Amino acid sequence: MRKLRLFVYGTLQPHAGTGMGGWVKARMTSAEAAEAAGRIHAVPGGNGWFPALVPAKSGVRVSGTLCELVLRPGDLALLDRYEGREYRRTTVTVRTVTGRRVRAQVYLWRIAMPQAALPIPSGDYLSWLEQTGRQAFTTPRNGA
Questions:
Q1: Predicted local confidence at residue 142, as pLDDT
Q2: What contacts 24+ positions apart, CB below 8 Å, involve 36-39?
């Protein structure tokens, strides 16, 4: 078993209503609302939209969930496959709603932003879905 602190801001959030959000929730020992520096875009794909977080040095923030996970062998590789080659997993500092600053793993977008991507000015992917009536991407990619 391996412990992992993971900041999730999209379909992996435990309350996102997606299969992979449920997968994360099943491995979670704690969760707390948090935010990270960056800009977020919605990218169309499969049967819905998925978020793409890119670093930003300004005061722009992305809302999400800081999760403490207990992973079995192979779980981290499954997460990496689900996110795909468009993302790279790295460590960033996130700020929780209580003001704590902690280091956590996060998936950052690493390729050129597709032309069809839409910026999410609020930095909150799940609220954006609700406000626009769009659906979250729910079909696992790469066999995850």
A1: 42
A2: 36/7, 36/9, 36/61, 36/62, 36/64, 36/92, 36/93, 36/94, 36/95, 36/106, 37/61, 37/62, 37/92, 37/93, 38/62, 38/108, 38/123, 39/119, 39/123
- What letter would DSSP give residue 98? T
Has this prediction a pTM greater than 0.85? yes
pLDDT-flagged residues of the chain (< 70): 139-144
- Give the end-to-end CA distance of the chain in Å, rounded to a whole number: 19
Nearest in space to 138 (alpha carbons), one of 76, 24, 48: 48
Which element (helix H / strand E) includes 37? strand 28-37
Stretch (H or E) spanning 7: strand 2-8
Pair of tokens at residue 32:
């707390």
Positions of E strands within 46-141: 48-54, 61-71, 87-96, 101-109, 118-119
Q: Kindly give the pairing relationship between strand 28-37 and strand 48-54.
A: unpaired
State residue 139's pLDDT score: 59
Q: Are 27 and 75 in contact (CB under 8 A)?
A: yes
